[in-house]
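U., I forgot to send this yesterday:
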Amino acid sequence: MSQNKHPCETCKEHCCIGDYGTFLTLRDADRISKHTGKKIEEFCFYGPICQDPEEQKEVMEDRDHSYFEYCDNGKVLQLKSKENKECIFLEDKKCIVYPVRPLICKIFPIGFRRIDGELKIFIEPEDKYCKFTEKNCMKHILNCLNYTSAQALHLINQFLKETDEYKEYSKEFEEKSPSEVLKSLKKI
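Result:
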């Protein structure tokens, strides 16, 4: 791999393909809708974290997935997937909404948690969806993502702010469409 190539360009794993949905904040959905001109329901839905019922059952029992920071019931607002489990916006192994991709996609593979009110940032060494975490070096990953530490921290804080906002409105998804929930948010 040349020095100038982004690791994602040569990766055969692709974090954009898998059994779990890609979590969206309401603001993510709004940004993507404005960028694509599509209605929110055309590219996302509120539903189980995993589409496979057996896997969903395991996820609910283990509750170790980060989605449980945003939900209690195992359902989240998420991007739709194609039949082959690719993200709806993945075409020829490239993201067609890259400038407005969900914040979780912009941050990945950097991990973070709020523990006792303090933000902890880490790398999952051996993340099954991202092979360039094998070096387990934050500097290497930031360089690959083309972020400074300050930019990564800004994205993480933006994500945390938007997920806090999402949690305030998440109960509304049981009765309203994502578009209607977003309208409620915009009234504020």
